[in-house]
Each structure stands twice: as C-alpha cells, then as structure tokens.
Amino acid sequence: MLIEQTGLGAGAASGAARAVTATCPACGYHVAAPFYDGGRQPLATLGWPATAREARAMRRLPLEFVRCLDCGHVFNAAFDYAAVPYSRKPNLMFNRGTLWSRFLDSIRREMLRRLPARPAVVEIGYGDASFLAALARARPGGRYTGFDPHGARAPEGGGRIELRRELFDASRHLEPLRPDLILSRHVMEHLANPLGFIQTVAFSAAQLDLQPLIYLEVPCIDRAIETFRAEDFYYEHNSHFTSTSFRRMLARSGADIEALGHGYDGEVVYAFLRLRERLERLCRWHESTLFHRRAGQARQAISEQLRELLAAGKRVAVWGGTGKSAAFLHAHAGLASGIACVVDSDPAKAGTFVPGLGIEIRFRDWLRRHPADVILIPAQWRARDIAGEMKRAGIRYESVLIPHAGQLVDFFRGAHPYRKRSSSGRRAAAGSGLAALAQALQARPTPAPEAARP
Ligand SMILES: [Zn+2]
User: How far does residue 169's CA lie from ligand 1's centre (Å)?
Assistant: First the structure.
C-alpha cells in the first residue's frame, strides 16, 4: 500500500495520513495527499463478465486515489494500465442523450467557426467516429483523419473520413497531415501520461513550424469533490481532472488558451488552445542531436585510431578499469582483447576485473615491469594527476593519449583543455558551434516565456 495511516487516537502529527510520493499525470508534481481509498475492486465498466460465476471471480484491483498537492488532480497511485483490457473491450462513449447531443452540437459549431473552408482535421481517439463524421458532413470540403487503435472500423465508402486503427504519433503523423485542428475528447483521462502526450504534440508541431488549433475535452470532477461523490473513482478511470488541473496541464504544455469552458452542467471541461514551444527547448533539441551524432562519430574515429595503434604493434595500457574507463573499454569492446593491460592508481582495485570484459585490473606499478608504449587515459580530467603520478613512480612510455572532441589526442602536445588547471576548457566549449546555433535560433520570432502565461 502506498498510503499508510496510523490510528485516529494518536497525536496530531503522527495521527495524520502520510503524504504520498507519486507523479501527477497532469502537472508532473511529485507529492500527493491520500484522497480516496476504495480498497480492491474489480473492473467496473470494461470487464464484461459473461456469467455470474465469472463476474464473482473477477480479479480485484487496488483503488488508491491520491490528490496532487500542486494542481489538485486526482489519480490512482496504484494504477497499472496493463490491467485494463482496452484491446479486447472497446470503451465506446454514449453520444446520444439529448442534453449531451446539444452540448456536442454547440462544440461543433464553435469548431467550425474557427476552421477554414477546407480544414484538415485529426481526431485522437475517435471511438464510434460519430463526432468526426458530423464535422465532415458540416464541412465536406475538408480532410478528416481519426486515430484510435480500438475505434470503429471505417464505413463503406467513407469519403473524406479516414479512420486509422492505430495510436497517434505526433512525430510521424503531424508532417503528412498538417492539421488545422487536432481534437481529442475523453481520451486524456485514460492516458498514463497526458502531460507528456500534449508536450510531445507541442514540440513536434513546433519543429514543423505548425501551430494547429487544439480542442481537448475531459470529464471534470469539481462537483464530485464538492459533494463527496466517491463512486466516480473506479479502476478504469485512473486520472481525474479538476478545472485547475486541466488548466495547469495545458500551461505546463505551453498552451495559449483561446477558450476554456464547461459543458453538461459542469461535468465536462474543455479548451480551445494553441501550443507554443519555448526557444530554449528547440535549442536543446539541436544541442542534443548534435551530441548524439558526434558521439557516434567519435566512437568510430577512436576505434579506428586504436586499431591503427594495435596494428602498428604498440603496447597500449588503459589507465582505469571502472567508471569512465570501463565505459570507454565497453564502447571499444571489439578491440579490448588487443589492450596490453589495464592499470589503476588505486591499489584496492588491483586483482578485480573490468566489468563485462573480464580483463584483470593491476596496480599502476605493473607498468614498471611491463612497460607500455601508449598510456590511454579515458578519464581526461585526471590525466594531469596521472602524468605526475607516473613521473614519481618512474613509469616510462612513448606517449599519453586522452579522448577529446571525438578523437584520441596526445596529452602533452595535442590541443585540449586538460593540461592546465584553468577554466579555459569551459570557455572553449561555450565558444563552440552550439553558441552560434543558439544565436541563430534567437533570431527567430520569440514565443512568450511560459511563466508569463496563465
Ligand atoms: Zn498535479
């Protein structure tokens, strides 16, 4: 159990329910309060037992609802998505009640008012596709695409509507579809990480310089909380938005909210919004992908240099057998058998073995009796100390190499920032192409900082 409570008769501090550490799906905050302990219950809506016996035998699942202290979102801290059989039992919404239909009509009118004459529309979680179909009927010149791995099959001669029984993936689907509107109704509350989903859509759209209109609609539990309506909280509904947690999730995703309202007597909250990405994140994306590419190139280049050294008959000793040095050896594991020896400054490590490779780690004095031509020091920032240590210990060598900027460089003669004790290394890094890239991106139109938005 995540929630522990002591006896009510105890003192104020010890008698209080404990705070729970759990990640809020709406805002990402990590501390929550116990909210509703429903014990263990079977699935309430997606189980569909065929017989009385089967119904009674259903697996009991934990209802440990907690409330985020930051945004007020309510969620089941013990929820496991794998326990809900969405794939076998579709969760079809009932869309035909009179009041409900009226609400949907008003939302559709609102959407059409904001859309061009021939809109590209994407619906995430289209269900029975009735909402999307009604939109398409109202504005037949558009292109309508629904995504739902458990949605209805496309009708014969579907016309402008394409129903895809797959998950929407912003990084793949946004570019070809270039939607004017992305809508999603009663889906966010089923996702394990709705905040992550919206942030991914925001980022993918920003990469393509798109800013589609977004419509999101979820059940709202403001009234359920006010009136202690505990029966709203069953296993399949693991994540419950309040007006505040919904708004907070959107703010954390960089949303400019154009309209936020409630429907169906306050039981539903919805928003029309546009997502704006921060320049800082786009810069970081470029910086990371550059590192990713360079790291791969460095591995190849260093392997090539190492191969040439070994082919030339050089005896190569690697200084350090754990941590960075082990990671270096793992990265070039194909050549590790050619390494003459692995030594370490720490006598306590002598006699142990390089993880994964099984090369024995020897104390550095091994090199006095078994000299190496090349001393390779993967932990660059220690190289200066190690050079001094080798001098004092009378260890001879031809050269000392360190990996730097994608290749092995000579510690004494090469260009690198580790020879002198100074901050020149940091200055060199800051003056690299990344700073120039950031400057170039700065020249683009700047979105408002997130903190300035509601
Ligand atoms: Zn929260």
Answer: 24
